[in-house]
Amino acid sequence: MKRAAQAGAALLAAMLTVTLVATFAAAALWQQWRSVEVEAADRTRVQSSWILTGALDWARLILREDRNRFDHLGEPWAVPLQEARLSTFLAADAANNADTGDADQVFLSGEITDLQSRLNLGNLVRAGNLDKDWVEVARRLFEVLGLPPSQLANMAENLRFASDIAVDNRNASRAALTPQRLEQLAWLGLPPQTIAVLEPYVTLLPTTGQPGTVPTVNVNTAPAQVIYAAVPGISLADAQRLVAERERKPFQALADVKALLPEGAELAASRVYVATSFFEVRGRLRMDDVTIEERSIVQRVTLGQEVRTLQRERVAPSPPTAPATRRNP
Q: Using CB atoms within 10 A as the burial measure, which of 6, 32, 87, 308 is most buried?
């Protein structure tokens, strides 16, 4: 009986030892797997960052090499980059001797958008006060889009309040933060439905309030609704006719636009022009089931001699761009 008890205790001890060893082995294996996964994720993050930085530099080069004094949708920058294997870009570089095997599984796409094809809502406030001319432009845009004017009045006043950084402003602590992205217009009281309607027609540029940087509307790239809003004295049909005319031949100067406008139209160079300084660059990188997308705002100055990056951020991936067309909504 005693011998049987000793045998049972020995068996139990052996089982406990095996269980303990298995537990330690599983923990070590998990730690090793986790380290490999963390290292792979970190490597992917660094590689994707370098690739997207290269894509941004490539986009800036395209904009810098564009020396035209007018910008339109027939230029190279306006053609989206459809999804393509990274290896095709590496193979095009005769000086590249690196192994491109892994690059066959990496796909790159993106596009450049003219941000001056939209109304910059930051123009509504100038030096702490509402700019009546730009508020009227926004009113006309709200009108043609069927949006309530009361929402515009509320948004404009809240934007002025948020932009008031004067030292003697005792109510500054109660003001909303100045929005940097369109979805943040909700901070100013706009409902999500209104923001969704406005999205194709407005933008928020990071240069609000700086002297000499009031972005005009590019009549060569803006949709008819924005042109209608920016040029008082014309109808939506007149704006649509301008869009049709520029598809045949882009406007090289405001005089070309004025010749097509009805009598009484107010074509002010302070509101509309034929060239662009602000662009949005989007780059998308797809590796297996992981998609990484970056959005950058760049400013082209001195006729393309310099292209500055004003803002750069990771964003939620959007669907791949459809083949380019020359028509605006």
A: 87
Q: Report the candidate in 154, 176, 164, 206 with the shortest Cα–Cα distance to residue 311.
A: 206
CB–CB of 272/278 below 8 Å?
no
Q: Are 128 and 163 in contact (CB under 8 A)?
A: yes
Q: How many CA atoms lie within 13 A of 324 on its CB side?
A: 17
Taking the C-alpha atoms of residue 204 and residue 121, their distance in angstroms, rounded to an integer, is 6
Considering the chain, what is the average pLDDT of its residues? 84
Give pLDDT tens digits for 88-121. 766 655 555 555 556 678 888 999 999 999 999 9
E-assigned strands of the chain? 81-85, 106-114, 119-120, 125-126, 129-130, 202-203, 217-218, 272-273, 278-287, 290-301, 306-315
CA 140/CA 132 separation, integer angstroms: 12
CA distances from 34 to 21, 41, 164, 289, 324 (A): 20, 10, 50, 19, 43
Closest Cα to residue 221, out of 49, 84, 90, 70? Answer: 70
Tell me: pLDDT of 327 over 50.
Answer: no
Separation CA 275–CA 292 (nearest Å): 31
DSSP secondary structure code for residue 145 in this structure: T
Largest CA distance in the chain: 117
CB 89 within 8 Å of CB 83: no
Statement: residue 256 has pLDDT above 60: yes
